[in-house]
Amino acid sequence: MRRASIVVLLTLVVASRAGAGGFAFDPHLSAGDFDDLAGVVADAVAFPLMTSAASSGVTGFEVLAAAGGPRVDRNASWWRYAVSGSTYGGIWPGARLIVRKGLPWRLDVGGQVGEIAGAHFLGGDARLALLEGGALSPAAALRVSYSRLQNAPMALDAKEVQLVLSKGFPIVTPYAAVGVRRVDADVTFGQAPVIHYSSRQNATTLAAGVQVRLVPFRFVGELRKGAKMGGFVGVGVGL
Questions:
Q1: Does domain 2-238 have CATH number 3.90.550.10?
Q2: I need a labelling partner for 20 at 20 to 30 A (CA). Which of 11, 58, 94, 204 fits?
Q3: In terms of Cα–Cα distance, which of 20, 215, 239 is closest to 117?
């Protein structure tokens, strides 16, 4: 099990480094291109679910190292005129660390820090278990999250509300979610003339994944649909 964890961690590091680079805005970038860029960057930095709907309780916690992101077309004009970087299997990957803690009243809270294209991002989430689930019934939860791009030539905030369902089994827990995401992004670049674009977007999001628990280890794989399809993998520990 320890060897498998090391292999997964190495995969996460390689994948995240493949997306190293930065943002480089070209005057040919249009307002429409910036809308496309904002949607995809929101896919990359928005706090992934990567857990079930059940509450972890006051003694519960988890720490995950994760990597992944949206699938992108490097021939798209928004990429050519705004991004200097590479992809890994068609995925524009970012690396992140996720920490969560269970609280009373069936509430779990968490935070994330990460990096995409040389820029850092951070975020937080809160998940309220509405139904704990049972032998035949699924668990359900309401989740809210917030993420922000930091130290980048563009500003971006992503806010999301999700309804989460999951069904627990002894080792494997499949889960799914549907949500609504709000994206607010701004950029100013160029010289004489200076170019400024703003993007305000609302989008429906979908997520589905599987969490494998082999105490104290956790392995998670997730597919997510926002502006683009994307995928995330993670490994960590928890109770």
A1: no
A2: 204
A3: 20
HSE of 203, CA atoms in CB hemisphere, 13 A: 22
CA distance linking residue 205 with residue 228, whole number of Å = 10
State the residue for tokens 């683009």. Answer: 228
Confidence bin at 4 (pLDDT 50/70/90): very low
C-alpha closest to that of 232 among 97, 127, 111: 97
The tens digit of pLDDT for each residue in 39-67 reads 999 999 999 999 999 999 999 999 999 99
SS3 31: helix
Give the Cβ contact number of residue 221 at 10 Å.
15
The DSSP code sequence of 132-152 is ---SSSPEEEEEEEEEEEESS
- Identify each DSSP E strand in the chain by its residue range: 21-23, 61-70, 83-85, 94-103, 107-116, 119-131, 139-150, 154-166, 172-189, 195-214, 217-225, 229-238
Q: Which two tokens stand for residue 89?
A: 């299997």
